[in-house]
User: Fold this.
Amino acid sequence: MKVASIVLSLGLLLGAAVVPRDRGPSVDREASREHRTSAALRKSLVIIVDGLRPDALHAAGAQHIESLIDGTFAPGYRGAYSPSAQAEEVTLSGPGHSSILTGVHLGKHGVASNAFDAKAGTFSGARYERYRDYFAVIEAARPELHTVRLVTWDATHSIPSGAGKAMLLKDDDAALALTAARILAGTHPDYPEDPDALFVFFSDTDNAGHQHGFSPARRGYLDAIRKVDEQIGSILSALKSRPDFAREDWQIVLTSDHGGAPDGRHDGGTPEKRTVPFLVTSRIATQGLMGGRPEIVDVAPTVLAHMGSTAPAVYDGRAQGCLHVVASGSQSGKAGRNRGERQPAGTTGKSSKGFENSPNRTDVYDSPPAGQRASIRFRPTEPPYIIPC
Assistant:
């Protein structure tokens, strides 16, 4: 039954379940023992939806993304989810995409805007020679793997990639979805190899946000989210139709580079612009809400942990979605405030990102259209809470 209203989502987004970010405990041994598939069968799909607000995602009723969240995507798969993850302080796509791909904050990778250096052929200030994308790490550890990066923005395509194949489907989300589905099905004429790690980047939601406003009250924005959800559904259908899907161990990570405001802008770093969804679906994910605030730099180490590769020591991110659950009031692991236990409702404090964590603070978000409700199938103000890796 779909029980979560947008009000409950906003309570979490604005801090009802916020805990300070720390490195967290070591990997749960029971969860690790459940991960019995061979490393050779572990595969990765990363989905980036540009300019996606979590409250609008749920207001849109995006059924395919919801199936990843609520664990109904496929038998044996579960979803660890946060509707309060954080993008970079500079809420622009250049810094965001760089952080997602490299696992480090903009202070390291050097991309602090969307400015483009024509001579360098990529974003101004970029230090990609030092901070490579996560595909370079995968390929260095296991060069026999087949890795693919698909994007629709030419500026993102300029980020050097360690992927075996990097394709630009310029400004065409439909072509990107079709290309990804064909690659997964083994029917793409230019890429017959069986993919092990695939990255896809959708941009139409950002375009709609700029045109109609980033808001769960703006129908044009919600329609764009529903459209990209259908495109994601076509990719998921191709994935589940693979002849060896039952034996494969897929991890699906979904997030965004930034949110946005009703005025159609996303620069400025305010909470509605920094707050994004973060989802990890896999056979070993623990169904429920992630504790704390994941960050977009967590994408790269999350993928590497699943693929059996060691994350570089320079990474700012950490793997997400792979640990056990601590229920409300449980003494298991003596979780405490800094290890996944939620902050009591009604409290106010400062997060590690510097803005108020008050469930009563709703000024930065709009009400959804009349009669619309979020349709996550778990109640976000109740346990369980997933301790991050």
About this structure: Residues 1-36, 323-389 have pLDDT under 50 and may be disordered. The longest strand covers residues 78-86. The domain at 6-386 is CATH 3.40.720.10 (Alkaline Phosphatase, subunit A).
